[in-house]
Design a protein that fits this description.
Elements (H helix, E strand, L loop, with lengths): L6 H9 L29 E3 L23 E6 L21 H14 L8 E6 L14 H26 L4 E6 L1 H13 L9 E7 L12 E2 L8 E3 L3 E3 L53 E3 L2 E4 L24 H19 L3
Helix pairs in contact: 3-4
Length: 344
């Protein structure tokens, strides 16, 4: 199970810091009578092309970039159901919980999903996610909670394929709980299936994916490969949490500065821009990257304030530290996919 140490709380604040999302809570006053999502209604999407949402945002230094939404990204957001559970609270979030939905939109959708908006329409379904405490347990109740979450995402994906895709290239992007569920989605719908031909790439970040999990889907080994998977988990150089030791390095991992899978060191100079607490800004050369033991090792990130210095687990910032590298790589892979498939 994935354990998130206390230092992650500080890191969360540095990336999106927000109780500010509570100011938007009243915008989310819709109610689900059945308790289940209705994906024909955009209220049940954290991001959707038919509405304005935080995934449409762009940091100011990147506003002049040309946009061409020739592909679609299906984004599976990470855990935002993190508040202390009361006795009456379920292990799965309510689909119409205003606080959770506001937090989702103004944290992960703004700071993560927006990285994919230059070359793709962003679809991000709300789902009855499992509470963060589920990652600290291993029992049948937890299994059912994750199954509930997956069934929602599966339903959303089927709705998207039927009503919105229309043969367009697809990017699957996810982080943390989203990646845990995303590997199941890829296995069921893409791995060795006809739909694999529409896959630009999958970015399953912040989760352990065994190297032999997929039958035909392979890890991306360069920056232009398509129909493949990228993923990484970010830790301070030299630190490998004890709960990862049983993996024995058996995990898909990509270096987001070079988009290769070797263990060559990639210097800070290759970091094209991080997005941290102030979404309007990007910080260049923030950190380096090197693959080791199935994870991504980095040196202390450098940026004004330098609050990262005491943190060794950068889980929350997996995407943000490499925001513009991810953004540019999506553009490169979409271009390679269109050229390869002559979709011009």
């Amino acid at each position: 199970m994935l354990l998130l140490p206390a230092g992650i709380i500080l890191l969360t604040c540095l990336v999106s810091c927000s109780n500010k999302y509570l100011a938007f809570k009243d915008r989310y006053r819709f109610s689900s009578i059945s308790g289940q999502p209705d994906y024909s209604n955009t209220d049940y999407w954290a991001a959707h092309p038919r509405k304005m949402d935080p995934s449409d945002s762009t940091p100011e230094p990147l506003l002049q970039e040309p946009k061409d939404s020739v592909a679609d990204v299906f984004f599976l957001h990470p855990t935002t159901y993190t508040r202390r559970r009361k006795k009456e609270d379920l292990l799965n979030a309510r689909i119409d919980d205003a606080s959770i939905n506001a937090k989702t939109d103004y944290s992960t959708i703004l700071y993560q999903a927006s990285a994919f908006n230059q070359n793709a329409r962003v679809f991000a379904p709300r789902y009855r996610q499992a509470h963060i405490s589920a990652f600290f347990r291993d029992d049948s109740v937890v299994g059912r909670a994750f199954n509930t979450a997956y069934e929602d995402l599966k339903t959303a994906f089927l709705y998207y394929m039927k009503h919105d895709n229309k043969g367009r290239p697809i990017i699957i992007a996810a982080h943390s709980q989203g990646s845990k569920l995303g590997e199941r989605l890829l296995k069921e719908f893409f791995d060795g299936k006809e739909l694999q031909n529409q896959l630009v790439a999958a970015y399953l970040i912040g989760w352990h994916i065994p190297k032999d999990y997929f039958s035909t889907l392979k890890i991306c080994s360069d920056s232009l490969q398509t129909g493949c998977i990228c993923g990484w988990r970010t830790f301070r150089k030299g630190y490998l949490p004890s709960y990862l030791l049983p993996e024995n390095g058996n995990s898909l991992v990509t270096n987001p500065l070079t988009w290769t899978t070797d263990n060559q060191y990639a210097p800070r100079s290759l970091n094209k821009g991080s997005v941290l607490k102030n979404f309007k800004k990007t910080y260049h050369h923030t950190t380096d990257a090197q693959i080791s033991n199935g994870v991504l090792w980095i040196s202390k990130p450098k940026f004004p304030g330098g609050f990262f210095y005491f943190i060794r687990n950068y889980h929350i910032a997996d995407i943000n530290l490499y925001y513009n590298n991810v953004r540019q790589n999506v553009a490169a892979r979409v271009g390679a996919f269109l050229k390869k498939n002559r979709v011009l």
